[in-house]
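User: Please predict structures.

Assistant: First:
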Amino acid sequence: MFIPTKVVSVLLAFAAVGFASPTSELAARSGPYNTVMINPGGYCMLAPRIPGMPIAVSGPSGATQSYCNHPTGGQGQMPPNFWTPTLRANQGIHGGPYVQLTGCINPGALGLNSNDPGGQYNSNGRFGEPGNPRGSACAGYAHYIERIEPANRRACIRCCQDPADCPINPEAACPAIIPGNYPGC
């Protein structure tokens, strides 16, 4: 079978990129379009990049985008009236650190369908899957879970080192999986 030289060169270039750096697993699997971030200076969260698309459909289909209140490149701009989250940092079940954001949202500000019951994004997937969306990650942490519930007007994100602190339960609502501040949602 003949494979054009140009195709081989491109494939080798991609292979070199994949193996060139022994940096963290996060760097190897994440990008500006699928990275969650929480720190005192700002945050990024995943959401559908297609207006009105259901949350539960956007992750498996790869139709997500990272939206940040201070984007640095490749991310979408989080509208200032979308979310005023409460930041909390703590130690988890086994003593590992976690950081989280919880609060009420304005679904229309980000083009979300206000009747959508919502869904969950996470780094680990279920049943051995590679995350939802595939390859997504939280900057500086080994695991994350994010849930957006437009119909309930709330969202929550937790980034953690221990997977026990980021429980994956697609049927559970924000207050059950990430207890926090949801005033009047």
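Second:
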Amino acid sequence: MRRYLLSRVLQAIITLWLLTLVAFVLTRLTGNPLDVLLDARATEEDRAAMAQALGLDRTWSAQYAIYLGKLARGDFGDSFKTRRPALEVVLERFPWTLELGSAAFLLSVAIAVPVGVITAVRKDTAVDALGKVIALLGQSLPTFWLGLMLILVFAVTLGWLPAGGSGSLSHLVLPAVTLGWFTVAGIMRLVRSAMLDTLGDEYVVTARAKGLAEHRVVWRHALRNALIPPLTYAGLVFVTLLAGAVVTETVFAWPGIGQLVIESMAFRDFPVIQVILLLFGALYIAMNLAVDLLYAWVDPRIRLAEAGERAR
């Protein structure tokens, strides 16, 4: 177990370093920030002075070395646009994205788990077919299209909910449904598959033979064990929801990191973009590591394999 833990931590560190490199290169490919920061009347001397002030007058390799050195000291640089610490700018918006992602996640779980269980119990029936249609729609409908359709129906036509903005629970409904709908299909299919495997286990057959009510067998006994695979998958889904909120936040004018990404890309604000990429990359790596360690703790085969290697 210790060797497995060390190997996974080492892989996470290497992945995080590669992420810093990718974030650095991708931001530079968006263009020169001086074209946005300075107007057309700026002279070459003005451009040179601004480039030197921002550290853009050096080669990419030199800039990357300086960037890594600052990261090691916990310095993520200052925003080109606001001249404030880039990390501070991002963390101001993060609670909004966290609120939207959490609402979307809870909504998707509340829909996916019951539907997954019911379609497993009613396998090869009309209910199961309907569940497959829901899964297909969840994976095929573009987020921006679904968001626009929800606005058209519930905000413009019916007037039940606001079309965008923030500040109340009603503002959260449409973006949460839009963002959460995409993950319903994956969780539902995983729950269905796990339930089909669990419903054939001996303890379930025994519980039915003892005369337990079917709803108790399914919802109290079978579901408890069937939820283990979906729970490990759910952590990665949550981080994916946070990172994938860019389109949804843009459609609904939600003041989260998604809006900040669009603004920073337009302004070519390298430090802010790099912080955003590193934040979500680190969250995904940390969640993936936690899932791997959970599997190692639950699955004794990993510990037995390590014991066998030591014995050799």
